[in-house]
Write a structure and sequence with these properties.
about 280 residues; 12 helices; 9 strands
Length: about 280
């Protein structure tokens, strides 16, 4: 077994950001992170702000915020439809960052927030401009699913200099030599995609998942978190002993269909209840 890869510190001052602080605390407590996913602006941006606050109150440790994009990478129909709904409202990147900034300035949310964003959006906005605005708004990291590892070094360097995490993905079909390259240019945590293909709820997850995650954890000191296909408390209980964190997306976003026609408080309460159910399952493992 090779020695675990030592990933670079987050900044020249080696200041711990919210993601690193979270996993340091959870590891000391023997706990796993619950990380729900939301699309920014679905059903509308103020609802997103309310949902983030409610999910954190109900037990979410970190929130993954999807930046709507007309050609999403790796996202199944549930999240793709959510992006379409958000885009129809005229959502803008500047408005998303401003919403996060309001959450931080009002001290409503202290939990880490990471953006799932296409590199096309980062590039169009300007890489340094995107990263600088992310930092000033209170975002803690970014996941860029369409950025190949061969092209990730510069973004990793620029993000690290700003104390932002660049979270990268490893899939079940990623060759191990390539996985090691991905690990070397990842900070914050490593995102393990539990199933080959697009996002979406699954009744069963691959039997080799535990072995794949165990191998990754033997190669890095980074937390390894599992996403894609987690649909409810039963899978939370099944996977909690395996990983450092669990990401729930489609199962949550599906509950936002038709939310624009319902009272916001009702929608927020329903989503909060689901997150609380997931958090309870995690604490019982």
């Amino acid at each position: 077994m090779r020695s675990p890869t030592v990933n670079p510190p987050h900044s020249s001052e080696n200041v711990m950001n919210r993601i690193d602080a979270l996993f340091t605390r959870l590891r000391s407590q023997g706990r796993r992170a619950l990380m729900p996913f939301l699309t920014a602006g679905d059903p509308e941006l103020e609802a997103t702000a309310a949902l983030i606050g409610e999910m954190v109150t109900r037990g979410a440790d970190m929130v993954e915020l999807g930046i709507p994009y007309s050609d999403p990478i790796a996202d199944g129909p549930v999240i793709a439809e959510s992006y379409t709904r958000a885009l129809r409202t005229g959502i803008k990147l500047a408005s998303i960052f401003a919403m996060v900034e309001r959450l931080r300035s009002s001290e409503r949310v202290e939990a880490p927030i990471v953006t799932m964003v296409s590199y096309a959006i980062v590039h169009r906005h300007g890489v340094t401009a995107y990263l600088d605005r992310a930092v000033s708004s209170g975002v803690d990291g970014l996941i860029v699913p369409d950025l190949p590892v061969e092209e990730a070094a510069d973004l990793c360097r620029l993000a690290t200099a700003r104390n932002l995490s660049l979270i990268q993905l490893v899939t079940p079909t990623t060759p191990r030599d390539r996985a090691l390259k991905i690990i070397a240019s990842t900070t914050g945590f490593l995102y393990y995609v539990s199933v080959a293909g697009i996002t979406g709820e699954r009744r069963e997850l691959p039997p080799e998942l535990a072995d794949n995650v165990a191998w990754l954890r033997s190669q890095t000191k980074l937390p390894v978190c599992i996403g894609f296909g987690i649909s409810g408390p039963d899978q939370i209980r099944q996977l909690a002993p395996v990983a450092d964190g669990l990401i729930v997306g489609s199962a949550l976003v599906r509950r936002l269909r038709g939310a624009a026609e319902r009272p916001r408080a009702e929608v927020v309460g329903e989503i909060g209840g689901f997150v609380e159910e997931l958090a309870r399952a995690l604490t019982l493992t």
